Amino acid sequence: MTDRELINAAFAASENAWAPYSGFKVGAALLCSDGTVYTGCNVENASFGATICAERVAFSKAISDGRRKGFVMLAVAADSETYCMPCGMCRQFISEFSSDIEILSARGDGRYTSYRLSQLLPHPFEAYEG
Ligand code: THU
Predict the structure, then answer these.
(1) Does the residue 126 lie in any domain?
(2) Is residue 32 part of a domain?
(3) What's the confidence (pLDDT) of residue 130?
(4) 129 catalytic, yes or no?
(5) Residue ID of nearest Cα to ligand 1 atom 6
């Protein structure tokens, strides 16, 4: 699975976004060590705080499928002018399951950045990790 293939999977997932309020469709694609890819899109709600981001949907699908480790790479994509970076809440959410996953963030023209989670969230909350 190449970076580009994972980003394409994220863009494809963004097509399913439920974003009637912001109009901002986001897709995510989570690559596991065995090659499995879990996708997600943002799902908004009229009670705005109930909205869930694409990244958390993708991770939640993996967790609900019994996955606990082996998360290799996450691509996030939106048809936007700027790179679609994971929000702060998603960074913390992801840190629960992968301390240093590689995160690709793509924008509408297909260009993308690559960061490690430890770069995006240097000091996660991990009070229960000792
Ligand atoms: N959104 C994501 O899906 N992922 C992010 O990391 C940032 C924001 C969604 C939430 C909301 O539906 C829309 O983008 C606008 O904030």
Answers:
(1) no
(2) yes
(3) 54
(4) no
(5) 86
